[in-house]
# Entry
Amino acid sequence: MHIYRADLRDLAACLALDGSYETDSVWQVTQQQEDDEVSTRFRTVRLPRTMRVRYPGWSEALLAHQQRGDLILVAAEASEVRGYIDQETQPDQGLAWVHHLVVAGGYRRQGIGTALLARGIQHARQLGLGHMMTVVQSKNYPAIRFLGRQGFRFCGYNEQFYRNQDIGIYFVRGL
# Structure
C-alpha cells in the first residue's frame, strides 16, 4: 500500500469511492431540561435490522480543500485509490481537523484507515499541533467504534450539522 499526497487526478478517484456503510447500531441522543439544568445522554441502540447509509457527499469541499493546500492523502495499490484522508490544519487553535476519512467498501478492516489516520497524526505532530478532531453521523457506528480504537473520545454534538438532519457527533484526541 502506497500513501502519498493527492494531486488533482487523484481527487476524481477519491470522489468515486463509495463511502456508504452498513450499521446495526446507532448512537441515540436524549435530552431533558429541568429548571436551569439540561442533560444530554447518548446510548448505543441496536437496530432491528442492518441499514445501509449513504456517506454525505461534499465533493465541492474536497476540491476547495485541495486548492487551499489542506493535507489530502490517498492510499493506493497498483494505481487504484482505495482510501483517502482530507485534513485541515488550524494552527491558531493547535488543531488538525479531519473532514473525511474514506476507505472503499471492499478494502475496509484491512488497516488502510488506520494507516491514513497515522500519517495524518504524524503530519499534525510535525506542525506542533496538540489535538485532532472530527465529526461523524450518529448513525455511523462503525466509524464511532473505529475512532474509539484510535484514541478519540466524544466531545460534543450538533443537531443541525448534516443536511439530512442527522446529528453530528464530535470526537477529539490528543497528539
